[in-house]
Recover the amino acids of this structure.
């Protein structure tokens, strides 16, 4: 009877060196982490251990109060439990579950939330980069990712460059994802910075001027300094806009 009790309380497995070991339930009932593999755990019922694996990409969190203790990697301290099950990649998801960066190392503001092998593309607010260690968007100096933004330092032909490390805020204090900036000499024209880093030229339709406060085109009378913009302007056949005499 004693031998039977010992066998029922143990589950056989291998350590990283390939040697067999027996996991013994520390308590008759509960879920307990594997000593070597972070996504493997044991479910003990009446002292009998059954080996379990978390879904690919998740790891066992012994501190969790939930019934399902499989959690995101960035929420768990695996310590010496460095082993993981072989990955099951699908598309842009290197594992079935988790938060992962864009496969192009130059694109640091886009990441993917993978759930059971299905990805959801997500974009950080302007000026932030995805940081896989925490699964969140942070300032570039904290993310410290190399090769980000192949277009981040791009200049337009007239010399305009998107401001660096200075996210533009709206009236409510929220970061503007694709901020606009006024042209220094032309009320009708403006610049757009895609995701805050990639510059594009913009132009209001004839009769309208760019309103910096509203971040859009507006009537000239509503923009100080541009009220008479069209009174002395003529069509510019080269650009489709206007030029002043």
């Amino acid at each position: 009877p004693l031998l039977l009790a010992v066998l029922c309380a143990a589950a056989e497995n291998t350590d990283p060196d390939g040697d067999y070991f027996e996991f013994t339930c520390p308590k008759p009932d509960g879920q307990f982490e594997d000593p070597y593999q972070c996504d493997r755990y044991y479910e003990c019922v009446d002292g009998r251990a059954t080996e379990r694996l978390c879904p690919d990409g998740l790891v066992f969190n012994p501190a969790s109060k939930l019934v399902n203790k499989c959690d995101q990697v960035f929420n768990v301290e695996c310590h010496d439990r460095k082993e993981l099950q072989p990955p099951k990649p699908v598309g842009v998801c290197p594992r079935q579950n988790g938060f992962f960066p864009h496969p192009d190392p130059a694109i640091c503001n886009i990441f993917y939330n993978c759930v059971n092998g299905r990805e959801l593309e997500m974009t950080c607010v302007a000026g932030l980069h995805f940081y896989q260690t925490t699964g969140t968007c942070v300032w570039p100096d904290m993310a410290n990712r190399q090769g980000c933004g192949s277009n981040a330092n791009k200049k337009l032909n007239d010399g305009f460059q998107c401001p660096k490390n200075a996210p533009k805020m709206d009236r409510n204090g929220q970061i503007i994802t694709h901020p606009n900036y006024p042209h220094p000499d032309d009320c009708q024209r403006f610049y757009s910075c895609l995701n805050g880093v990639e510059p594009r030229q913009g132009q209001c339709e004839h009769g309208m001027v760019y309103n910096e406060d509203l971040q859009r085109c507006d009537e000239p009378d509503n923009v100080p300094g541009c009220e008479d913009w069209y009174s002395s302007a003529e069509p510019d056949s080269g650009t489709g806009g206007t030029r002043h005499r």
Summary: The chain has three domains: 19-86, 98-143, 151-229. The chain has two helices and 19 strands. Residues 1-9, 237-241 have pLDDT under 50 and may be disordered. The CA atoms of residues 58 and 72 lie 5 Å apart.
